[in-house]
Amino acid sequence: MSDDKILAIQKLAFPWDTENPFLISVHHKDAYPQGNEDQGPIVSLAGRNLGQDFTLRDGFRMYHGTRVPGFPVHPHKGFETVTVVLQGLVDHFDSTGSYGRYGNGDVQWLTTGRGTQHTEMFPLVHEDKDNPLELFQIWLNLPSKGKSAPPEYKMFWSEDIPEIRITGLNERKTTIRLIAGSFAGKTSLAPNNASWARDPHHHVGIFLAHVEPHASFSLPPISNTLNRNLYFYQGDTIDIEGVTVESYHRIKLAGDQEITISNGSAEGYILILEGEPIPEEVAQSGPFVMNTRQELREAFEEYQRTQFGGWQWERPDPVNDRNAGRFAHYSNGTIEKRENRG
Known about the structure:
By secondary structure, this protein is mainly β. Helix content is 4%, strand content 43%.
């Protein structure tokens, strides 16, 4: 395909297929209505399979939530979650004692390491208007030594995330937000300490591109071992080195060649995931990712025995006060607060 620059094209499904060092990528987009006094949907939930509601109905899903949509307390071990919120809010609580609220452009980077429990609830804070939500959750594997690291999370607040603005010959612009990695001379905020993305030699990139109609941009050559995937999730068409691709497709690209992407007649939105693979075996079962099946069995036994520190919160689906705003309260007592957005 196109001089071997395009290695594969695949229609997107749920979840999106990824390649090492990534495990999965999930795109959530829900048109939540106004919120009630509990910060749940004001509309009736009758007829939904509450607790396992993954069917889009009336424009939204409740997921594992029964009152507030989202994901009540659940364990993870051995990998990282990078949660990129484009619109809406997420409430975070975990077994280390940390909690917070983020959204509308913010990113949470969570290293689960040796094991943690946490929640991801989607509070519907607005009682007088709808509460749309759109986010990506990207699972990034940890190398074996990182799987025994202490849990850690940090916030990349929207206003701190670096952006690149590229203007083409036709004055059309592309804006690229750097969640991880380097692009055009700029570098992202630093990932957590145990992350595979921490070492720049691993070339981990998580980029969000907004491409104006008929704008174009290029990805630089990096290495012939790099896994590079472009997720064209919204728009009309893009042209990659003479090949036209419709929206909602994954395009696997060569990592050692410069590749130009030209947008069609509509606003284009693209997620790019790339990185050098972790040269280790992967053994995964649900929320645990280890290197061997024996390590997986030991991880489940450890969770049954220790509950990864237990759960100190009063309910499995806690939410912050409606007017809490954007903040992070870390287990060491540090508090970060940001102005509300959206």
